[in-house]
């Protein structure tokens, strides 16, 4: 595992230099998100926990960092015909918002089973919606058609150096806000977030541990780490709708080399952690956003002697876009 | 209406001097709560909105400011036998926590119909619970018995200069954080919060407007302002469980003189504003905490020419303690 702090430039799709460039490019657009903490959750976990609240980021998730870095990296000739992406979630809203700020069209291919609130976010930021079936095949074929028709350029949600670099700006902020951090727990899906976070954090502070948090029903990253190669799953089954993607060829090498462990948690642990985020922190998170807290409270983390001296732990609360319709219905009865 | 900035010292139960003293007394215990904002909510309301998030205060509500000021104001001889209060809500948790920090017992009389999450908060902070019936008569008689048995001193939730002064520290922080504020919208119940906020804000910035937000089903403050005397209601009916109290003899003169208007909103407007707090701001608020946003979006505020030039509006998000059981049940199905 390469965690001695000397990460060879050019080895991966991004590095500390591209992440610092991303920061300069996007810092006037993004929110510097606050760190929340709770003495109660510290006592429950036996550690000092620092919640980096990317749910307060524009668009309600960290995705705006990568999307704005990618979109503002485009030359005018590339940008003029707009951008396209296929996503059921936070990346779609982030691309819509970043494109709006750049003054170019965003074409968003959304599978018909996407959560209402995430579709609503795309509309709010002016993305032009094209519907697809839920399958990846349908998403990709509709996207290809849109690209052919419009000349728009594809912004991939994670397997892209500009996206990874944008997400990595979280670590630059975090280590400035709380320099004593010794561990960062990051939700893992396609790997864009954790790749950027790991590259920046280990470049700045080589001793830092990067732990991934993954739901049991979409544990391709844990399986990939165990097998030493990318494993994809025939299907996924988790309430964490943001964590269903699989690693890509650009994120996998970074995850393989820089992620110290993938902690797998059950959906019921995610719900319990969500409850704590709402009831203790008063922060409205989506299931994916709560998985870091679920991981730190899990038996497998708490009992692992390797993590016994993880004392100052940052938890990336990745997003807060969740349908709470049942709650509003209960009030309106 | 006395809003020319010259508020006579000693006229009310608190003043800018007692509020500044409170700040010095409590600032090492309390959180300086952050201000949140949303470009989307600014565009919806046509104003710049600054949400002062007291839901992130210790204990999940502004109440900890007043409770800690009152409890740390006590002489050792007064404090030694502990404190007592009767409350179904946030004041009870706040008194428990402040007493715990002072190292004295807190006896909390709780009506049997209190929300679970608020009882849980009292337990979390080590308050000793005594149950009463839901009526004020039962609450008071149980409290009296506890005082007789223990020698503990009563900490009233709002009708007390030390409580008013503690709550007033919000304005000191707010006007330091966002000096351009021209209007503050504050939930009103017993009047402790708005009294402190108004006294401090109008002392510092005489031109500032203080608007109260009150639910239709507990609109005693609006009726009192209209009648020129304290009006109490035979019953209340609102989802905002924190806003059911009536003005007291110490808060009424301040509300009468310094509150520019009471904006009355419907429960359905409160639910709509809660939804926006969760979905847009990603902040978990209780109904009472969302009422300020409901007020600024209401027809009666938006159409009133008197508030046309309210451009930079602070909204006090008073608390975030709410039972979301139905949500967790839906996930655990």
Morphology call of chain A: globular
The main pleated sheet of chain A reads as:
6 strands, mixed
Mean pLDDT of chain A, rounded to whole units?
94
What percentage of residues of chain A falls in helices of 4 or more residues?
Answer: 40-55%
Largest interface: A-B, 32 and 32 residues
- Order of H and E elements of chain A: HEHEHHEHEHEHEHEHEHHEHHHEH
Distance between the amino and carboxyl termini of chain A: 56 Å
- In CATH, the architecture of the largest domain in chain A is 3-Layer(aba) Sandwich
**Total DSSP helices of chain A:** 15
Strand tally of chain A: 10
Function (chains A, B): Catalyzes the synthesis of D-serine from L-serine. Has dehydratase activity towards both L-serine and D-serine.
Protein name (chains A, B): Serine racemase
GO molecular function, one term (chains A, B): pyridoxal phosphate binding
Keywords (chains A, B): Lyase, Magnesium, Pyridoxal phosphate, S-nitrosylation
Structure description:
Chain A is of the alpha/beta class. Chain A folds into two domains: 16-61 and 160-325, Rossmann fold (3-Layer(aba) Sandwich), CATH 3.40.50; 63-154, 3-Layer(aba) Sandwich (Rossmann fold), CATH 3.40.50. Helix content of chain A is 46%, strand content 14%. Chain A has helices at 16-26, 39-45, 63-73, 76-79, 90-102, 116-124, 136-150, 161-177, 192-204, 220-227, 252-258, 267-281, 287-297, 299-302, 325-332; strands at residues 35-36, 48-53, 83-86, 106-111, 128-132, 153-154, 183-187, 209-215, 261-265, 312-317. A six-stranded mixed sheet of chain A has the order 1-2-10-7-8-9, with helices on both faces. In chain A, strands 5-4-3-6 form a four-stranded parallel sheet, sandwiched between helices. In chain A, α3 crosses α8 and α8 packs across α9. The first copy, chain A, is globular and about 55 Å long. The termini of chain A are far apart. Mean pLDDT of chain A is 94; it is low at 1-5. Chain A binds chain B through residues 34, 36, 40, 53, 55-56, 60, 117, 124, 239, 267-268, 271, 274-275, 277-279, 281-285, 320-321, 324, 326-328, 330-332, and chain B through 34, 36, 40, 53, 55-56, 60, 117, 124, 239, 267-268, 271, 274-275, 277-279, 281-285, 320-321, 324, 326-328, 330-332.
């Amino acid at each position: 595992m390469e965690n001695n702090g000397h990460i060879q430039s050019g080895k991966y799709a991004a590095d500390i230099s591209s992440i610092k460039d991303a920061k300069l490019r996007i810092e006037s657009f993004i929110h510097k998100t606050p760190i929340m903490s709770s003495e109660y959750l510290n006592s429950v976990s036996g550690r000092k926990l620092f919640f980096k609240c990317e749910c307060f980021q524009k668009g309600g998730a960290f995705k705006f960092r990568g999307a704005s870095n990618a979109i503002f990296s485009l030359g005018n000739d590339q940008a003029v015909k707009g951008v396209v992406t296929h996503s059921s979630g936070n990346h779609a809203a982030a691309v819509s918002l970043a494109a709006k700020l750049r003054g170019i069209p965003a074409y968003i291919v959304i599978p018909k089973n996407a959560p209402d609130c995430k579709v609503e976010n795309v509309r709010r930021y002016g993305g032009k919606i094209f519907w697809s079936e839920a399958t990846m095949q349908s998403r990709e074929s509709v996207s290809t058609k849109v690209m052919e028709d419009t000349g728009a350029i594809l912004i991939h949600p994670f397997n892209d150096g500009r996206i990874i670099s944008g997400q990595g700006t979280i670590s630059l902020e975090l280590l400035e806000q709380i320099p004593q951090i010794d561990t960062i727990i990051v939700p893992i899906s396609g790997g864009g977030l954790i790749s950027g976070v790991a590259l920046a954090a280990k470049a700045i502070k080589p001793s830092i541990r990067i732990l991934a948090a993954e739901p049991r029903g979409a544990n391709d990253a844990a399986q990939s780490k165990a097998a030493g190669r990318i494993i994809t799953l025939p299907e996924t089954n988790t309430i964490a709708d943001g964590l269903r993607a699989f690693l890509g060829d650009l994120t996998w090498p970074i995850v393989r080399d820089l992620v110290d462990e993938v902690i797998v948690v059950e959906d019921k642990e995610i719900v319990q952690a969500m409850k704590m985020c709402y009831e203790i922190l008063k922060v409205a998170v989506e299931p994916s956003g709560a998985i870091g807290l679920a991981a730190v409270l899990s038996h497998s983390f708490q009992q692992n002697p390797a993590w016994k001296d993880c004392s100052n732990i940052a938890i990336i609360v990745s997003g807060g876009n969740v349908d709470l319709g049942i709650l509003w219905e209960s009030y309106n009865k």
